[in-house]
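ping. complex inputs:
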Amino acid sequence: MCRLIAITSDTPQSPMTALNALDVMREGHDGSGVGLCLRDLGGPLEEMKDEPILSGIFTEAGIRRLDGYMINLGFLTKYKISIKIPKVPPQGVPKRDMYLIRAYEYPEEWADMDREEKEARLVNIRLALQDMGRENQDMIVFSFWPDTIMIKEIGDPLTVGKYLELGNEKLNARIIMAQGRQNTNYAIDLYACHPFFIQGFSTMTNGENTAFVPIREYLKSRGEPGYTGFYSDSEVFVHILHYTLKHLGLGVEAYKHVITPLQDGDLESHPNGDFLTHLKRTCRKLIIDGPNCVIGLLPDNTMFMTQDRKKLRPGVVGGQSGTWVFSSEVCGLDYVLPGRDKHTDFQPMHLDTAVVRPDRREVYICKQMKRLPRLH
Amino acid sequence: MQANEKITPSTLSLKDLPWQIDWSRDKCTLCGQCTAACPVNAIELGVFRKRIVETDINAATQPGNVYKVYHGIRQRTDPAYHCVGCAMCAMVCPNDAIMPYHSDESDKLRFHLNRGGQAERRGGRRNAPGGVLDQIKFTRISMLTDPALDAGRHEFEMRALLGRILPPEENMQRVREHGWIPPVREIYPLIIGGMSFGALSPPMWEGLQMGVAYLNEEMGMPVRISTGEGGCPPRLLRSRFMRYVILQIASGYFGWDEIIHAIPEMKVDPCAIEIKYGQGAKPGDGGLLMWHKVNDLISAIRGVPKGVSLPSPPTHQTKYSIEEAVAKMIQSMSMAWGFRVPVYPKISGTSTSLAVLNNLSRNPYAAGLAIDGEDGGTGAAYNVSLDHMGHPIASCLRDCYLNLVKLGQQNEIPLFAGGGIGKNGNLAANAAALIMLGASGVQVGKYVMQAAAGCLGSETRRCNICNIGLCPKGITSQDPRLYRRLDAEDVAQRVVDMYVSFDTELRKIVAPLGRSTTLPIGMSDALGIADKAAADRLQIQYVV
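pong. complex structure:
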């Protein structure tokens, strides 16, 4: 079982805070890998909220190919954060040439492009780079999106963090999602590391998704180029989230109704029963059936946690106005916010979605049996 | 045979028959119950003459012999009266003195079941035991990475959707705009497939209907039953129980005059309309009710004269193409009930089923597709159709499902699979395998007859005389002297037993796979088979 920690805070935090919290929960992960997603960035990248940032791991040859490709598209490097790495990696961490975090300026011809078009193209570029990297084994690309940095590596989270010097003052963010991996595949593929990301949506989960194959088949047939990869059975969670909000135009409250719909008896007495019955039937292939705690992030930086239908995985939310932490275990939460009022900690149960809006004033508990907010 | 009897090409010995009666002179009381119970008059009272050699201990007395007569059971060897192995003789014998045994080699009778040029017709199923469904194992067991669920304590919602499901975006738009959304029924994934009133006896039909009503109203299980092609009793048409019934229309249109006239008086809509284009047991051939079974009641319900055979045409005669046959009939049936009732076709398994499916995928009114595989049963058919025509259900269903996956319509057109599910008694395992291969639900007929009414038929030529109305258990007979053996209440009880135990077994399969919230349709990663060719064909794991 993996361990998850997510922080949303008015003041930028170092990713090392999250990695230390994972270390506190180390009994729940085996140190086989770590994934980080940073958004609402602080530091030098704060001034470049709209510029797409490319995150990935490259060989020397890969970097040259990347530069050629990006220049050809008209992208110019605007800023980069250099990660200096010692010559010898710690035990269990593979040797890499370069960890890249680079903000680009859009090509001139993109200036008049509408947002949708821009977003679609960014995804296509990321996918093309991933394909190129797979061909020559010289690049691994995690994200190419504004205000977003992703770092993933094999090894113990804290060791990797120290090795990559993630305590670097240039690297901080108001939103941090981190997963300490309990590897269930013998060979570790970095693309299978959480968190997963698509167009501003990100999720990480803890648990195995037993309905993976039918869900994957369904997502692949939705005509969305970004619904690809599927190196992990948990990757579908972010695609379902994207599909629910972007394709169906629903809110975060509906996500749980898609992945773990109510039973028919409950739907009969639900104020939105008719609508939810339609949703349940039409999105039937997106129902997850495994034991999963999902922590998700929306493009507007709303963060949420929700549980499977039987609440088989741990998860807790705590904090105070301005800073909230979503954690697999209370000890992780204690590490980040030792002084909070613990009485207000909340563990979402099988019908709950705990949501912290971008203003970070409160945790809003969305009960599945309650009326859905009106759609605009 | 008698010494002076003529030997003809069709003169057979007991050895040439598929079933041989073993009778014990020691135990027999000569009560005659076996000969009375035999549905095909294969046994009769026999008078045997026997010579007994008598020798005296006194050497002076010459040995001699006497001729004695004894009475017992003689098995007839005339092909017209061959034993069908039903074993009703054994069932009624007070002393267990009689029993049919299957011949140890292939019989010679089969070469003579066409006297008068009449090809063999029979009821039952394909005479081929075994099948690929029983070989499929469920191999993806939730272990330490995700916990197996508790089949007894966790909540389960195992429901099939019968009806056309729109893509989520389009459905959302129609909800907003109050547009027409195709009717969808949430039903139990095990459907009682079409067995007509006429093929089945009145108590059998009544028992099935009572069992289904009980399951719905007392057990909360939304079980549905198809009428088959034989109409529907008028009182049922006008009752609230109609919602549990799938009305079948087939190429003979039997009973539909009564149904159409009852529409204005129906209290509730039927569950669905099934348009039968084909049947797994006799693909490409129409329904058949032989004259033996067309009595006053049947002729009244079907709207036909009595005492005549009722062969339905192989296809719907008013239609000449798939567009006509499918689109117009679906449209007409939908219109008859104001587009409130799902309408779907049922075809027999065929290598051309993808063409039908592709056509349906473009028809917004098609509510699903039922496919009946080669192991489906029938009340009457030509033996050659039963044994040699048709397509196995597993690969046919799998091809259709994967085709829907390719089109992205796997949630839009539910597939229902039938034909040989549970033929070896493994109902839940077979049903679950087909669901994981892509079926939304399964249809069963023979299993219900065996479990709920004690049908004696088997895949080794046992009984299979449903066609001539002589069913020894009264299941497929229209003769009150036979069908009074069957009590409708008992049938209903057994239907309930069967469904409740099936439900437990289904949970015992899906819970260890970590599934409970929804039926694991298309969860092919859970399946394995120790046959490489079958694994490749079905795109499931090869396990040894």
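The first strand of chain B starts at residue 19 and ends at 23.
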